[in-house]
Fold these 2 entries.
Entry 1:
Amino acid sequence: MPSGEDLFVDGSGQPQLTLCAVLYVDLLGVSALAEGQAAQQSLVRLERALRSMYRDFLADDSPWPAAMFSDTLVVAAPLVPSAGKGAAETATGGLTIQAAWLQLNLVLSGFFLRGGLALGQFHIREGLLFGEALVEAYRLESRLAVHPRVVFGSAAAEAQREALKFYSEPRNSPQNALLLVDQDGTVFIDYLELLFDEPDDPRPGLEEHRDAVAAQLTTHRNDSRIWDKYRWVADYHNAVCERRLPSEQYLRVDTSGTDRRFDALVP
Amino acid sequence: MAQHGNAFRKVRAWIFDTGFVKQAPISGQNRAWSPARWPPRASSHRPQRLLPQLPVRTVGRSPKGVSASLPGPRPTRDSRRRHLSSDSRRAPGRFPGTAPAPAAFARRIGHNEAVSPIDEATLDTDTPRTLDGRAYPEHLRPYLEYDKTLLAILVREGEATFDELARGPLDARVLAALPRWLASAQWRGLIERSDAGTQRRYALTQRGRRRLRTPSG
C-alpha cells in the first residue's frame, strides 16, 4: 500500500484531490483548558491522551494521514484502487474503528469529543488540508452532531449500509456492531461497543466511562447548554449497559445526576 | 495477638498502597494480580513531544465557555462497595465470586505480564468463552480470513505494536481489518497482548503458530 501522502500528489508532483473517508473531531472543553490557570498541566494531559493510546494517531508514518490544530483533529483514510468495489466501505469502516478507539481512549482520559465522518474528495499533505469531504465533516461536527458523538455523512452511512448486503446475517456484521442510529435518524459511532470486542472484562471500562460522564454532569450542572450534551452521553451509556449488561445496575450513570432539577421561586 | 494481627495488616496495607510491593518479585498467585491494565495508560517513560506544528485550520471558531470545576459526584453506597474491590475486578481473569485465573495462564511477553480471561478449555471450539461466561462476538467471525496474512507478519516481527503491524505491506482491506482481527485473534488464543509497557504489544502464541501451519490457517 502506498504511504498516505503519496496518494495526494500526481505524477508531476502536483497536489491532487483523492477520494477519502475523512474524520473531523473537536475535543470539547479544550479551549477553556488552554485559557485556564492549569494550562500547562492540561497540555501534558492532552498530549498523553492523544499519544499514549494503543496506537499513535499523529505519527509521521501513520497509514491514516492526520493533522491536529488547537482542539481539532482530522484523520483521513484514502480509498485505494486495490480494495476494488468495496473501497468506500473499506476506507469508511477502517476509519470508523480508528475513530471509535480514539473516542473511547480520549473519553476515558477525560476528553469528550464531537465529530463528523464524511466521504468525498480530500487533500492532506504537509499540513495542507483541503476538499469537500473536510467541509462536510466539519459541517457534520458543527451542525449535526450537537452532542459528544461522531456522526456519519450520508455517503459514508450509505457505504456502510451497502456493505451489510454482503452478510448473510447483517445483525452480526462488523458494521452493525459499531454503529447506532439516534432517535433523530443520525448514524453515529457506538464507541463503547469496543469494550466488548476484546476478551477483557468490559466492566472496568464502563465504570471509568460512567464516572467520567458523572463528573461532567456535576461540573456543568449550572450550564444547561453543556449539561444537556453530557446528559445525552449518560443516556447513551445507560442504553449500552441496558442492552449488554442489563442486570448490572451499578454500571449505569446515577439518575440523580441525569434528572433535571426544578426549584421553587422562593426556596 | 489480635493487636499484632492488626499491626501486620496495617503494614501490609501501607506496602500495597504505596506501591512498594512492586519492587518485590512477583511469584505464584500474585501473577493473577499482575498490573495488566486496560486501556493502556500514559507512562513517565514515554518521550514527551509537543503537539505537531500543523499550520492549517480551514475553519475558525470562538473559544467555548466552561464553568468552574466542582467536586465530582458523591459515590453511591453501591459504587463505594464496588470500588473497594476494584483491584480484584481490574485484573483480567478475576471476576466477582469466581476463582482466580489458573496460574498456568499467566503469560509473559518480554518483561511484561498479561493474564488471559479466556477459558482455555474453549479455545479450540467455534465459540471461545471467557472465564465469566462471555462468548466470542459473532461480528468478529469474518476476520478469520486474515489469519494467514497477519499471523505471518507476527512470525516475522516477533512481537509488534499496532503501528508496527500497520506499517507492513498490507493492502487497504487488511489494514482496515487489523484492529478487529487483533481482537478476534485474542479471543482465539492465537496472539497474546501486553499493556504493561508504554504501548500495547502483540505476540504470537504456540496456538497461533499451529494455526499458521493448518491448511485453512
Entry 2:
Amino acid sequence: MLTLERVAIRLEDFALAADLSVAEGARVAVIGPSGAGKSTLLAAIGGFAPISHGRLLWRGAAIGHLPPARRPVATIFQDNNLFPHLTVAANVGLGLAPNARLGAADRARVAETLASVGLEGLGARKPGSLSGGQQSRVALARAALQDRPVMLLDEPFAALGPALKVEMIDLVIRLADDRGATLLMVTHDPGDARQLGGETILVAEGRARPPVPTTQLLENPPDVLRDYLG
Amino acid sequence: MARRPRPLTAAGLAAAGLVAALVLGSLAAVASRAQIGPGAGLGPGDWGAVRFTLWQAAVSAAVSVALAVPVARALARRRFPGRGLLVTLLGAPFILPVIVAILGLLMVFGRAGWVNDALGVAGLPAVSIYGWHGVILANVFFNLPLATRLILQGWLSIPAERFRLAASLGLDRRRAFRLIEAPMLREVLPGSALVIFLICTTSFAVALTLGGGPRATTIELAIYQAFRFDFDLSRAALLALLQLGVTALAGTLALTVAVPDAMGAGLGRPLVRWDRGPVWGDGLAICLAALFLLAPLAALLLRGGPALAGLPASVWVAAGRSTAVALGSALLCLGLGLAIAVAAQRMGGRRARGVELAGMLGLAASPLVLGTGLFIMLYPFVRPDRLALPVTALVNATMALPFALRALVPAVARIERDYGRLADSLGLGGLARLRRLLLPRLARPLGFAGGLAAALSMGDLGVIALFADAQSATLPLQLYRLMGAYRMDEAAGAAVLLLGLSLLAFWIFDRGGRVDADA
C-alpha cells in the first residue's frame, strides 16, 4: 500500500493536499485540469517536490525523507528520459547499476530487456537516432530493470500519435503486471485512463482525491471533471 | 529531499579557496612590501606612468570604438562572400599572441616596413612606430575587432521589424538612424569603450616593445623595470598597488555601465535593410579594416615562413617549454573551472555567487601584479627562475579561469536542469555523475575553455618576464629577445611558430570537445 497521509505540498504560489491510499499492484490514472498539480503529486511521491506536512508511507514505512533513488519508485518523466550522449544499452544499464561498470551477466540482461520491449539489436545506437516511440520503449526498458514496486509515469507519451500511445500503454501494463508493480500514470486523456482499466485519482481545486474505479468516475463525473472533459 | 553528493562540492570549495588564496595572498604580499619612506616611494616618473596608462587606455578605447562603428554597420547590413570568415577572424585577436601581432605591425609600420617603404618611394618623410602612437596603434589593432564584434551584436539585436516600419513610413536615412540606430549606439558604445579601456590599462607587452622612456611607460612596464633594472621590490610593490587601484577603479566603473557580451553567438545573419545607402562606403570600411588587420599577419608570414627551417635550437627548446606551460595551464584552468562550476550549481543562491566570484578574482589583478606578489612571497625561499614555468602556468590559469567559468557555469546549470531529475531518480551520484553525465555533456564548453586557456598561456608575455632567466625562457620571451637583438628574420620565424602553436593549441582542444558530440 502506498499511502499519502494528510500530505500537503507547498511550492511558491501553489498548494496541493492529498489524503489517499493506493493498493499494491493497482493501475491508477491521475487526471485533472492543467496546472492542478498532477505532475506535482508524482514529483512528491518520487522525491522531487518537498512534502511540507503529512507522511508518505510505503508498506507502512515512511519514505518521505529518502532521496529519489532510495525510494521504491521508478519515474518516467515528460521529457529528457534518456541521456543523449550514452548508447541505448548504457541508458538501460543505468537501471541496473548507475555507479558501476556492467558485467557480462548484466549486459545480457540489458539485451534481453531491450528485446522484450521490441528493440532487439538496437543497443549500440544513440537515442537521437531512434523514433519517439522507440525512445519511450528504451525508458520503459530501463524502468523495468530498475525493478521498483512503484512505477510513476508523468505523461511520457503525450508527444506520440494515438495509435502509438495505445501500444505504449499496453506495453506499460504488461511490464507492470509481469512484476506486480503499482502504476500511477498522469494523463489528460480519459481514453488513456479507460485503457489502463483500473482506478483514477482526480486532481482538481488544490486537492488529489482518493482513487475510485475509472469507469464509475467517467460515467458519473463530478462538476470539475465534467467542466474539464467538456 | 535529495541529498546531493558532497565530494564534488568540496572540490569546488577547495578550488575557489585556492584561487582566492593565490590572488588575495599575492595582493597581501604586495601591500606588506609597499613602503613609503626616506629613499623609498614613488618618483615623478612613476606618476607619469599612471597618467600615461590612463591616457593611452582612454585614447585606444575611443579610437577603437570610433573606427569600429562604420565597420560594424557595414558588416551588419551587407552580405558578401567571406563575410562569415571575416566575422570569425574578428574573434581571433583574443588568442593571437600579443608579441606576434606587434612583430607583424613592425613589419608594416616599422622603420623598414611596408608603409615607410611606400612613403620613401613617394618622397615623404618616414613615420616611427616607437612611442605613444605605436602603443595606441597596437592597442587599436587588438581592440578594433573586439569593438566591432560588440557593436555588431548591438546592430543585430535591433528587430528587423523596426527597419521595415521605417521603410514603410518612408523615413530617410538620417531620421531612421536617429530613431533606430542612435539609441542602440548610446547603449552599446559606453560599455564597449569601457571594456577596451579596462583591457588597455594592463597593457604590458605592447608598452614593453613599442613604448618605454619617460613618455610612453605604463604602470605594468614600470613594475617590470623596477624589478629588472633596479631590483627595487618595494617600488615594484607600490606600483603594483597603483595598478590594482586603476584596475579596481575601471572595474567599478564597468559595473555601473551595462557591458555587452562579446562571447555571444549569432553574428552570422545580416540585417535586411531598405535604406542601406551607397555600397562604396561600406565596402571601403570593410576593406580598410580587413587590410589593417590582415596586412601585419601577411607580412609576418611572408618574412617568417622561410626562416622557420633555420631557427636556432634555443627557439625550439623554448617552444617545448611554452607547450608544456600551455598544456599545464589549460588543464589546471579546466580542473578549477569544472570544480567551481559544479559546486556553484549545487550550492545555489548567495553561497554559489561567492564561490563563482572567488573564481573570477583573476579579473581584479593584472598578471604583473600577481607576479610581483608571488615573487615577493617566493624569493626568500627559492630562486624565482626555478619556478618560472609553474608560476607562469598557475597565473595564466587564474587569468583564463573567468572565461572558463563564463562558459561552464551556465552549461552545468543547463545540464542539471534538463537531466538532474533523471540522474537523481537513478541514483547517479558523485564520480559516476561526473563521468557519465557532466563530462560528456560538457565536452564542448570544456574544449572551448581549454583551447582559450592553452592559447592565452602559449602567447603570454607577462609574468614570465619577471621570473625567467635565459634557461627558462618561453617562446614569447625568446621571441622578444630576438627582437631586442635585431635578429628580425629569426624573430619572424619564431613568431610564425608561436602563432601556429597558439592556433593549434586552441584548435586541438576545441576540436576535441566537438568529436562525438551528438544531441
